[in-house]
Design brief:
By secondary structure, the protein is α/β, with parallel strands linked by helices. It has 2 domains: 183 residues, Rossmann fold (3-Layer(aba) Sandwich); 115 residues, Phosphofructokinase domain (Rossmann fold, 3-Layer(aba) Sandwich), CATH 3.40.50. It is 42% helix and 18% strand. It has 11 helices and 11 strands. The strands form 2 sheets. Strands 3-2-1-4-5-10-11 form a 7-stranded mixed sheet, with helices on both faces. The chain has a 4-stranded parallel sheet with strand order 7-8-6-9, with helices on both faces. A hairpin with a 2-residue loop joins strand 10 and strand 11. Helix 1 packs parallel to helix 9 and helix 6 runs parallel beside helix 11. It is elongated, with a radius of gyration of 22 Å. The structure holds 6-O-phosphono-beta-D-fructofuranose. 6-O-phosphono-beta-D-fructofuranose binds next to loops.
Length: 325
Amino acid sequence: MGKIKTIGVLTSGGDAPGMNAAIRSVTRAGIYNGFSIKGIYRGYEGLINGETKAFTTEDVSGIISRGGTILKTARSKDFMTPEGRQRAYETCQREEIDALVVIGGNGSLSGARIFAEEFDFPIIGLPGTIDNDLYGTDATIGYDTTMNTIMDCVDRIRDTANSHERIFFVEVMGREAGYLAQNTAIACGAEAAIIPEDMTDADQLAEFMHRGIRKSKKSCIVIVSESPKCGALYYADRVKKEFPGFDVRVSILGHLQRGGSPSARDRILASCMGVGAVEAIKQGQRNVMIGYRFNDVVYVPFSECIRTDKPFDKRLIKVLDELSI
Ligand code: F6P
């Protein structure tokens, strides 16, 4: 492949606050450094269908504060097939796109890895997901905003939980990862968090229930990571059966967690990562995700960042346990 002149940028998978800041950053840093930029709409779907637009700096004006993604997003089934990826490659050839910046989570970067290998195509990934489950970066774009959104919601739930002396199971997103649940539980002074990394068995649930009573706490908030089998409804049912004296409620926060204006931290992270992506392309890097570790940009090979065993800091479990007595 010759010299890179045009960079395509797309967002893929679940949207995350700060994706727009990342699009703006890639566009402006790209133009500043002499590249042409093409926005690709609807993630890999748009790449397959040739939905592109040449971006100027004005195209990304006024978007840093907006949630969602101006490029739209999708989870493309077609891109999972060799035929779909072939069509996506043909779009790149036709549109003279020489490199891609893909902003998305686990699934999106897995797709990027396959495409990059199949067609020997340079791709830089940016971790755009509220879940914070990508390996090799301390934070992902959207994670901080979502924690703040959850915190605001749970603070409100606390008011009504206190007034009615109820137990609330609040379910938060995170798919297979407990970062959102554990950290927001600490931030909200919740009594417990139930996360996939530390599955709570029957006795643990009973233990913190009793602990709550012993402290004469009349209300109690438990943050639960979403899970198809044992989400907030499952635990609420169990408590209703095992502790019939309690007034139990469930609140599933759902997609409101993904919306809203990004926090300062997410805007800065996305801006630095976008600049990092363009710098990576200039350096001839390819097939790496831009991570942020100890306040510095790092390059994480795709094969590393999509690992499923991002280490969970077990000290956070101890912090919550000690502070919720
Ligand atoms: O990966 C981001 C995420 O918000 C997860 O936390 C959640 O499980 C999933 O996306 C929900 O996806 P959908 O948009 O398909 O409802």
